[in-house]
Amino acid sequence: MTFYLSGFRSFLKLWKSNPYFELGPATSSASFFLGVHCVIGNQQRWFSVKPTTPPNSKILNLLVTKARTLKKGNDSNKQASSGPHYFAAGEAKKRSHLSGNPQNQGHTLPVKSTVQLPTKPLNSEEWDKLKEDFKGKASFEDFVISQMTRSCSSVDVAKSLLAWVAAKNNGIVGYNLLVKYLYLCVFHKQTSEVIDVYEIMKAKYKSLESGGYTLLIRGLIHSDRWREALLLLEDIKKVMVPSKKNYGDCIQGALLHQDVNVAWSLYQELVGHNLIPLLETLKAFFDHGKDMNDDQYSNQLLDILLYLRNNQLYPGESFAHSIKTWFESGQCSSCGRAIESIHLSPEEYEFLKETIMRDVIDGGDQYKKTTPQELKRFERFVKSCPPFDIVIDGLNVAKMFPKGRESQNLLGIVSQLAQQNLQLLVLGRKHMLRPSSQWRKDEMEQVRKQAHCFFADNISEDDPFLLYATLNSGSHCKFITKDLLRDHKACLPDARAQRLFFKWQQGHQLAITKGFLKSKLTFQHILSYDTVVQTTGDTWHIPYDEDLVPRSSCEVPTKWLCLQRKTPAPC
């Protein structure tokens, strides 16, 4: 099979991502039992987020204590043991090492490559020279692209290989080469390139092999064309039952784009085929649910917990933390009632987005110096990029740590975020690209390799760009700046718009608490609930100011009054 490469467009900056992986079992031998009481609707269920002692623990602990006492008093009593039980996690591996199992000795020798993989794109002459030096028996092109996938090489480097092959073969690129290139695009979350390959394959073939489908599905779910991944899933169904990875990717795509009904429908299909969902798929439901106040969704999550029990599945530590966060999100510690979420409803989000576009970005000239032409240039830039996870006010962040060089400060923040496989946008001014004592060229080049960057004119204001990019990326996108955006809030036409803006700001603005140079980057905790007077009918929750504690207009109280209506005792 071959493909014609004429359909490739220009390649965008890299998208960073980890390959799909499956969470392993928890390593702790402690059992997790149910110990928190929850009332949802008219149902009462018991569940747990903390480790407790297993049944008959008093007897077990007493026996262990006696064994330890006997051991101290008499060395001959060495059969009693207080170590992990036979079925504890990790014990089989330990026994395997003790028994000298040759399968675990790691005798496989590393395979040495006969070609040094390039770290930057090569031109035609450089690829010709590299092929001349190749001593292997396999096809040079296949060998190099295989090594690139193993080392997760840059998409730009792989693209230069494909361009070289196409030039040598009248624009023809073999299927194996194209699919492995697609793997790198998916790995780096370079969605625009995934779509390019998708268009080529869709035009050339009516169906693909399962590996091609899997890569395309995984690559499309992060784009605004995510629903086409569902069409590919339907194509797979025509010949076989899709894998749990295929279902899991489509479920995560639906949740990412706020289509809960599609996600649950796919989940029911998945378990209906007697497939065990990936733990990462189940975790995605809990991650999405922590921002929802929906009884039906909560009941479905409780059903997932029962599914774990009935199938003897054990969540990994990250999954367990997601479950814990869901249980604890938005509940009054006094009465247990749910508090209103800090996140806007889809209708509120669209209303706020349209209002800000109209009254802050397109209007509000008294608060900005940005020209309409530059805003149009920025709009085109944003449309050419995938949705962002975090938008960074580059100049603002660079000045957060006075002891460091500004480009060094910015690079330190961007590098740590890039390691988390986040899609980043750095907003800056053109003067940041001119080498100076505060802005080193090599450090800014590293920033541009790890994030999308847009540098506005030096007279422009950053905030309109920050608001535009964040709101257009979707409700998951956060932003980093020390600016409290009070001027832009004041541009909004009425109290409702200003209240929703402040609510959105509280749920999306990240505040750096530590992150200078080599220290670990940490952010101030974002509340999951809205700090506003609220009622459920029989309860009132009222945030209030403490005496002698000053609070500015952009801050909210930290103390709450919980009022509950008492039910009269029966006569």
Report on the architecture of this protein:
- The protein is α/β, with parallel strands linked by helices and 571 residues long.
- The chain has helices spanning 57-73, 91-98, 124-132, 140-151, 155-168, 175-187, 191-204, 210-220, 227-237, 244-256, 260-272, 279-289, 295-310, 317-328, 346-361, 372-383, 394-398, 406-418, 441-450, 463-473, 486-491, 495-508, and strands at 2-4, 36-40, 43-47, 172-174, 390-393, 424-429, 452-456, 478-480, 509-510, 512-514, 522-523, 534-535, 539-544, 559-564.
- The strands form five sheets. A five-stranded parallel sheet has the order 7-6-5-8-9, sandwiched between helices. Strands 12-13-14 form a three-stranded antiparallel sheet, with no helix packed on it. Strands 1-4 form a two-stranded antiparallel ribbon.
- A hairpin with a 2-residue loop joins strand 2 and strand 3.
- The longest helix has 17 residues, at 57-73.
- The termini are far apart.
- Mean pLDDT is 79; it is low at 1-82 and 101-113.
